[in-house]
């Protein structure tokens, strides 16, 4: 695999072809915040908080570093007024759902996000998808999935599968940044009456 | 239909077909597109068949049920050839007169002709009607001549000659070069140079490649692609096979909205007939090139018009867009190089191959060659599908072709580009329409939807409308789109309800920035456009809603009240009878009064009050006058005064 | 819908996993809604996880997970119809039927849905009932139109 030379925050970095900007930054010790990223899973590119500025082939773009592949001679900036504004807004949008989530609170302090910007929303799931993807990619059970679209999107345990698999697993539980997952599981278990629990 | 095995056989067959057509013969074409079907053209068709049979003309006068003629406001449309006498708003009851007078006696029936609204002049011939006169119909030219369910009609208008030329007289690189030289840009909205797209797909290695027709036309108010697919499916197929040959693909898909059943039906018939004729399948026309195509239907998701979401849907998954790079040309359907183009883009290809790059790029503007089909709809007189050369001004489209605004109302804005586009006000009406000009004023040309708005349209409501649409269609995967649209819609709902706050506009603009720059796909990235363009040109309307709780267009229900002017009310009792909420108090010779507590603001009274009285008015931003006392409500008629 | 018919439809697509959306569309068209057992059968025969089927039938608007009424009312809310007054028509239809979009009346008479553009903008506002198009609708005429449906 060939080498790719790029610059991140002024640092010259040598990355391997096929690496993402996030991976390259990590290898150089440059931190980029993430919410929906987990090394054991395929990058998802949903939270967009890892957005960075990349200048390559004469074009300047804002890209999600967790999914965007490194390009030769790219110049990447991980912090700027534009980037910070985006991250601040993403945090404010998510804080409307999960104001108590520790990871959101920590990031909110760093980016000056206002927890009260938007009125509280009813669901405290931030739809990072870590649970769904872990069950699909690592456990290969598909016991929990996304349903609906747009603002109605939510995670949902598939009772027929969850009742057989989850009681003995629950490996996804620690991944949930807001504990909504645990709440949803308990609710489903109670409503549907899982056979084996 | 016997298989055609070579270009020579094709030309022989075409010659025979053409020899059977007497250019001076009388024949009838009836528009049978979905819109005219909805206006009961099937009844007209049945009446024509019956009447022709009755008069013994069935074998002598051809009758074709064609695709959309474009002038949808006046459908069903019947054209009598060879003169191309154009009859509008034809009903089944008119048919016997049409056959006896025009078909048999060459007499024109005035009442069925187009009437110029300002001069009262009757126009008999289609090409003279302003709606058609100012267009430049190339792609649509065949729609009124071809029965989409009969491949012979398409062959008779030189159909599949471009395919033969490409397969036998050109190599794939030459085909790509021709399309590049023509300057064709994608007609789906993004306007990416088609030739370049093909070149990239061609260059990517691999034996398995795919070509796809994106017929998931989702912009509300836009139905150009439907009419091309319903009316001339072979043009799209022919373009697709040529593209497949250029790129090196042997399998194609046509992804059509399931809300377009007639298009699905006609394209399936066309594929079957093309296979029988040898234009699809193995060894096409004896060239050694194989290509098959399948139809897949959408399941009601606007986002599947986005190419990566479309690919997911074809793969049997929810339509969630995928990160790019890699681009579909590199890694698309099932990870193979895939070229996706819009219906209208494909339909342009045969004409480009037959007439050459220079012919095509001599039409339109420098950066935008060729014609574009627009659906001209909304508050406009001549609603329909118009095909015009790129560069024509908005003013010409709306006023010359479109016949201006109905009911004497004033033009306010024209919305282009669907939910990804913007509203353009009167000051820019003299801009030419193409990919680049409209982008300069905060809109995009988009796929061709052109919705005209008048003084009664509330622009804040329009911004809210598009956000409602986008929130129903967002896949919901990424935060900037899902949550950004959620909050923008909350704010706009509050504003139109009269609960707007001073800080709302600033927050809206901040949200627009994040959603527009950090979203995963084009749906999210362009979602702010309707908000931003209405803020740019109609900020005063936003401010009126927020500060004065007033809707300048008298449209937002929560901010208006209906009021019967006691000076004008003549107690005709029409509104009282029609009011669904029984909110109108009044009786014979009693001036009517609306009970504001019961009124649901449906607007029925406003509609039904006779125009000679115009007693029902709308009030906004000020209190409703107290009702006059009951004793003062008695109307004393002039004639009854003694 | 019985398993035999479901299997027939699946066979039409050679049991290909990627055809799941096309299969469900055909079943939806014939049966007018998708009961849970049908989803399980499709999941089993096409070897598609039930979770993905659930995601598909809730993601795409063409699918209905509850029975439909005898008459399906589709009110077009496309931009052109909106500009010509469709929201007021929708409000009136809601008042007259007592249901909101996505709902079916308790007597199973009407199901109401909004659609985004049926492509008949010249006739706007458009309401389609059981595939029959009603054009130039206004609140005042809505009651008369609905009266014709038993």
From the N-terminal CA to the C-terminal CA of chain B, the straight-line distance is 86 Å
Shape of chain B: globular
Uncertain ranges of chain B: none
Biggest sheet character of chain A: 5 strands, mixed
- What fraction of residues of chain B sit in β-strands? 5-15%
Distance between the termini of chain A: 49 Å
Q: How would you summarize the topology of this molecule?
A:
The complex is a heterotrimer of chains A (197), B (642) and C (150).
Chain A lengths: L2 E6 L2 E6 L4 H7 L23 E6 L2 E6 L10 E3 L3 H15 L6 H10 L18 H8 L6 E4 L6 E4 L1 H7 L14 H14 L4
Helix pairs in contact in A: 2-3
Chain B lengths: L6 H13 L7 E5 L2 H5 L2 H14 L7 E5 L11 E4 L3 E3 L7 H10 L9 E2 L6 E2 L6 H4 L17 H6 L4 H9 L2 H11 L11 H10 L6 E6 L8 H8 L1 H15 L3 E6 L4 H17 L14 E6 L9 H8 L23 E5 H13 L1 H5 L9 E8 L5 E6 L4 H8 L9 E6 L5 E4 L23 E6 L4 H15 L5 H19 L6 H15 L3 H5 L1 H20 L12 E5 L9 H5 L5 E2 L7 E2 L9 H5 L7 E5 L22
Parallel strand pairs in B: 1-2, 7-8, 7-10, 8-9, 11-15
Antiparallel strand pairs in B: 1-3, 3-4, 5-6, 11-12, 13-14, 13-15, 16-19, 17-18
Chain C lengths: L2 H10 L7 H12 L4 H11 L3 H10 L11 E6 L2 H5 L2 H12 L12 E6 L11 E3 L2 E3 L4 H9 L3
Parallel strand pairs in C: 1-2
Antiparallel strand pairs in C: 1-3, 3-4
Detailed description of the structure:
The complex is a heterotrimer of chains A (197), B (642) and C (150). Helix content of chain A is 31%, strand content 18%. With 197 residues, chain A is α+β, with helices and mostly antiparallel strands. In chain A, the strands form two sheets. Chain A has a five-stranded mixed beta sheet, sandwiched between helices. A two-stranded antiparallel ribbon of chain A has the order 6-7. In chain A, strand 3 (51-56) and strand 4 (59-64) form a beta hairpin. In chain A, helix 2 (81-95) runs antiparallel to helix 3 (102-111). The longest helix of chain A is centred in the middle third of the chain and has 15 residues, at 81-95. The mean pLDDT of chain A is 95. In chain B, the strands form six sheets. Chain B has a five-stranded mixed beta sheet. Chain B is globular, with a radius of gyration of 28 Å. A four-stranded mixed beta sheet of chain C has the order 2-1-3-4, with helices on one face. Chains in contact: A-B, A-C, B-C. Chains B and C meet through helix 2, strand 11, strand 15, helix 17 and helix 23 of B and helix 2, helix 4, helix 5, helix 6 and helix 7 of C.
């Amino acid at each position: 695999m060939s080498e790719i030379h790029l610059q991140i925050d002024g640092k010259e970095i040598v990355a391997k072809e096929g690496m993402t900007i996030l991976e390259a930054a990590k290898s150089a010790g440059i931190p980029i915040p993430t919410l929906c990223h987990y090394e054991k899973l395929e990058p998802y590119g949903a939270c967009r908080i890892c957005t960075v500025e990349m200048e390559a082939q004469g074009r300047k773009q804002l890209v999600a570093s967790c999914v965007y592949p490194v390009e030769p001679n790219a110049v990447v900036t991980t912090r700027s007024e534009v980037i910070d504004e985006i991250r601040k807004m993403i945090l404010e949008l998510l804080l409307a759902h999960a104001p108590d989530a520790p990871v959101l609170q920590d990031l909110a302090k760093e980016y000056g996000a206002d927890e009260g910007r938007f009125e509280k929303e009813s669901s405290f799931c931030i739809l990072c998808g870590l649970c769904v993807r872990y069950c699909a990619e690592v456990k290969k059970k598909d016991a929990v999935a996304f349903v609906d679209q747009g603002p109605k999107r939510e995670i949902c345990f598939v009772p027929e599968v969850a009742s057989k698999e989850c009681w003995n697993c629950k490996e996804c539980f620690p991944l949930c940044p807001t504990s909504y997952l645990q709440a949803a599981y308990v609710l489903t278990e109670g409503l549907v009456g899982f056979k084996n629990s | 239909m016997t298989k055609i095995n070579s270009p020579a056989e094709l030309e022989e067959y075409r010659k025979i077909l053409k020899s059977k057509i007497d250019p001076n013969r009388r024949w009838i074409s009836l528009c049978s597109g979905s819109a005219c079907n909805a206006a009961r053209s099937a009844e007209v068709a049945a009446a024509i068949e019956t009447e022709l049979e009755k008069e013994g003309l069935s074998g002598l006068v051809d009758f074709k049920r064609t695709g959309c003629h474009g002038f949808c406001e006046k459908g069903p449309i019947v054209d009598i050839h060879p003169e191309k006498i154009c009859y509008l708003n034809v009903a089944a009851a008119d048919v016997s007169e049409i056959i006896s007078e025009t078909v048999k006696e060459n007499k024109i029936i005035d009442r069925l002709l187009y009437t110029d609204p300002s001069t009262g002049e009757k126009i008999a011939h289609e090409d003279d009607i302003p709606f058609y006169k100012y267009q430049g119909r190339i792609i649509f030219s065949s729609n009124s001549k071809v029965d989409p369910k009969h491949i012979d009609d398409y062959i008779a208008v030189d159909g599949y000659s471009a395919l033969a030329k490409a397969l036998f007289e050109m190599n794939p690189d030459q085909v790509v070069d021709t399309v590049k030289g023509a300057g064709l840009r994608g007609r789906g909205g993004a306007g990416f140079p088609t030739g370049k797209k093909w070149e990239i797909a061609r260059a990517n290695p691999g034996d398995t490649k795919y070509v796809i027709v994106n017929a998931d036309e989702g912009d509300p108010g836009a139905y150009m692609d439907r009419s091309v697919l319903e009316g001339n499916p072979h043009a799209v197929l022919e373009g697709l096979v040529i593209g497949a040959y250029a790129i090196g693909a042997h399998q194609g898909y046509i992804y059509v909205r399931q809300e377009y059943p007639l298009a699905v039906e006609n394209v399936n018939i066309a594929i079957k007939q093309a296979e029988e004729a040898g234009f699809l399948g193995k060894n096409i026309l004896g060239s050694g090139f194989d290509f098959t195509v399948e139809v897949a239907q959408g399941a009601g998701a606007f986002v599947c018009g986005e190419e990566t979401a479309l690919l997911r849907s074809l793969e049997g998954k929810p339509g969630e867009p995928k990160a790019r790079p890699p681009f579909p040309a590199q890694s698309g359907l099932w990870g193979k190089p895939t070229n996706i183009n819009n219906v209208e883009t494909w339909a342009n290809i045969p004409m480009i191959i037959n007439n050459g790059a220079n012919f095509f790029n001599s039409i339109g503007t420098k950066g935008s060659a060729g014609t574009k089909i627009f659906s001209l709809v909304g508050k406009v007189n001549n609603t329909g599908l118009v095909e015009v050369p790129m560069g024509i001004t908005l003013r010409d489209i709306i006023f010359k072709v479109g016949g201006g605004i109905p009911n004497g109302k004033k033009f306010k804005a024209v919305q282009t580009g669907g939910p990804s586009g913007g509203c353009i006000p009167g000051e820019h009406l003299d801009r030419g329409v193409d990919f680049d000009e409209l982008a300069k004023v905060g809109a995009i040309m988009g796929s061709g939807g052109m919705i005209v708005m008048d003084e009664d349209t509330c622009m804040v409501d329009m911004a809210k409308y598009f956000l409602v649409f986008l929130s129903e269609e967002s896949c919901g995967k990424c935060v900037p789109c899902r949550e950004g649209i959620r909050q923008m819609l909350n704010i706009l709902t509050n504003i139109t309800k009269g609960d707007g706050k001073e800080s709302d506009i600033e927050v809206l603009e901040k949200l627009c920035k994040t959603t527009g720059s950090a979203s995963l796909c084009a749906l999210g990235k362009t979602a702010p456009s309707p908000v931003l363009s209405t803020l740019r040109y109609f900020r005063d309307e936003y401010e009126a809603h927020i500060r004065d709780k007033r809707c300048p267009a008298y449209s937002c229900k929560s901010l208006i009240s209906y009021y019967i002017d006691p000076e004008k009310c003549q107690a005709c009792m029409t509104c009282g009878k029609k009011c669904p909420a029984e909110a109108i108090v009044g009786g014979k010779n009693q001036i009517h009064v609306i009970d504001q507590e019961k009124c649901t603001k449906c607007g029925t009274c406003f509609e039904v009050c006779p125009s000679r009285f115009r007693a029902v008015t709308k009030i906004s931003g000020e209190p409703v006058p107290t009702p006059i006392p009951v004793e003062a409500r008695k109307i004393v008629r002039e004639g009854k005064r003694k | 819908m019985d398993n035999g018919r479901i299997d027939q439809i699946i066979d039409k697509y050679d049991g290909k996993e990627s055809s799941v959306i096309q299969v469900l569309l055909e079943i939806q068209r014939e049966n007018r809604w998708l009961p849970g057992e049908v989803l399980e059968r499709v999941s089993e025969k096409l070897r598609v996880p039930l979770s993905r089927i659930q995601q598909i039938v809730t993601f795409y608007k063409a699918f209905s997970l509850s029975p439909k009424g005898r008459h399906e009312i589709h009110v077009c809310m496309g931009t052109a119809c909106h500009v010509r007054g469709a929201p007021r028509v929708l409000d009136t239809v809601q008042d007259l039927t007592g249901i909101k979009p996505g709902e079916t009346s308790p007597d199973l008479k009407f199901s109401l849905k909004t659609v985004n553009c049926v492509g008949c903008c010249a006739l706007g506002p458009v309401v389609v009932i059981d595939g029959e198009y009603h054009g130039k609708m206004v609140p005042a005429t809505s009651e008369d139109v609905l009266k014709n449906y038993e």
